[in-house]
Amino acid sequence: MDKKLRPPLTGRTGISRLISYVDAVTAIAMTLLILPLVDDASRIGAADLAGFIRDDTYELFAFALSFVVIFRLWLAHHHTYEQVTGGTPALIWANMPWMLGVVFLPFPTELLDDANRESPLANGLYVGTLAWISAFGLIQQLIIHRTPEIRPPDAGPVALAPAGILTLLMLLALAVSVLFPRIGLWGLLLLFLQGPALRLVSRIRSPRTRQ
Fold first, then answer.
1. Are 118 and 187 in contact (CB under 8 A)?
2. Which carries the bigger pLDDT value, residue 71 or residue 13?
């Protein structure tokens, strides 16, 4: 690879700068979520505020959902890099599509209105973006797992099960939102299965650990 194209953020200082950059990108994306509603609110004038809230209930729901989801994904990213002492070019580049998904999410969020509530394309684009972000979060963890020299010696192995299960559930929710448009975003309730799935994986692994 050309040295000019090789990410220079491979030391501890560099990885800290990358994390700060990701934090800034995430904060901007979360802020952008509210701007369409602010624009709509500016046109209320003397109109009934209760009527505005009633007419835009689904949009408000989409904003709250996306805000919580981005925060949760950022929290997982932060946890992934807590004990990372350096980076690799592959790890740095894997952050780019992750951030691309976070920055793109306000767009499909804006499409989630009453008219598109049962649209396979709108719901699929939204859930598909979440699945994209989750998948590249998992890829980052895989890179860290396969590169132990960038973790402290006492950090232990990277737990891949949570990110792996989350990505699988996201893909399942994507299939549900596209194949069953009436269910729409309610397919994201499948994410609540992550906890039970992790406990099941833990039980399956326990006998092998004792052996």
1. no
2. 71
Contact present, 58 and 131 (Cβ < 8 Å): no
Closest by Cα among 58, 32, 71 to 186: 58
Tokens representing 86? Answer: 């350096």
CA–CA separation, 111 and 53 (whole Å): 17
Q: 85: which 2 tokens?
A: 């002492």
pTM of the model: 0.83
- Domain edges within the chain: 12-210
| pLDDT tens digit sequence for 180-190 | 988 888 888 88
Contact between residue 157 and residue 136 where contact means Cβ atoms under 8 Å apart:
no
**58 and 114 in contact (C-beta within 8 Å)?**
yes
* CA dihedral of 58, 60, 61, 67, whole degrees rounded to 10: 150
The answer to whether the CB of 87 falls within 8 A of the CB of 150 is yes
